[in-house]
Amino acid sequence: MSECSLLGWLTLIVLTGTGGVIAWYTVETQRMRKEMTRQNALHVQPFVFVTEIVSQPDALVLRNMGRGAALHIQIDDIEFDVDGASTPDYVAKFSTVDVIEAGNDVRATTELTHVRKGQAKTLFSFVSGLDPNVQKLHDLPISISYQDIHGTQHKTELTMGKSGTRLVGYA
């Protein structure tokens, strides 16, 4: 009876050790799979950034510095209120861009509009106000939204103006 009991305990120990090794291997395999998935996503992920300010035509040059194509690129409108009113006095609107292939750039044109009581009137060049050689007082927020080839949304947040072009956030 004691031999059988000893054999039973040894079997239990071996099976418990084997189960522990299998559980550890499962966790490690899952971690490796997640890392490989993350690396694959990085391989096709775009990264759009402003590389230049052009005055003729009034535009920002957007470059895709990532490895994948950027789709449906849109720069958020920038609204200005001069006298602290609840509605903006001026709005800078940027053109949308359908695609920027990896390593390429494209111009997103802009226009500054004076908005008063439902009427809009296109004014002068706006992008010169983003140039640090011209803009000595403020840094203005620039938000660029786009998708990768899998439809995942990405956003590059910048400031441009007195401090030059600065990356604030990327998601």
Notes on the structure:
Helix content is 25%, strand content 41%. It is an alpha+beta fold. It has two domains: 43 residues; 123 residues, Sandwich (Immunoglobulin-like). The strands form two sheets. Strands 1, 2, 4, 5, 7 and 8 form a six-stranded antiparallel β-sheet that branches. The protein has a five-stranded antiparallel β-sheet with strand order 6-3-9-10-11, with no helix packed on it. The mean pLDDT is 86.
Feature tags:
171 residues, alpha+beta, Immunoglobulin-like, 2 domains, six-stranded antiparallel sheet, five-stranded antiparallel sheet, 1 helix
Set out the fold topology.
Elements: H1 2-43, E1 48-54, E2 59-64, E3 70-75, E4 78-80, E5 90-94, E6 97-100, E7 105-116, E8 119-122, E9 139-147, E10 153-161, E11 166-170
Antiparallel strand pairs: 1-2, 2-7, 3-6, 3-9, 4-5, 5-7, 7-8, 9-10, 10-11
Sum this structure up briefly.
The chain has one helix at 2-43; strands at residues 48-54, 59-64, 70-75, 78-80, 90-94, 97-100, 105-116, 119-122, 139-147, 153-161, 166-170. The chain is α+β, with helices and mostly antiparallel strands.
Instruction: Identify the CATH architecture of the largest domain.
Output: Sandwich
Considering DSSP H and I runs of 4 or more, what fraction of the residues is helical? 10-25%
Outline type: elongated
Kindly name the structural category: alpha+beta
How far do the termini sit from each other? 66 Å
The main sheet comes to: 6 strands, antiparallel
Strand residue percentage: 35-45%
Question: CATH topology of the largest domain, anyone?
Answer: Immunoglobulin-like
Number of strands: 11
CATH class of the largest domain equals Mainly Beta
The SSE order reads: HEEEEEEEEEEE
What is the CA-based Rg, rounded? 28 Å
Number of helices: 1
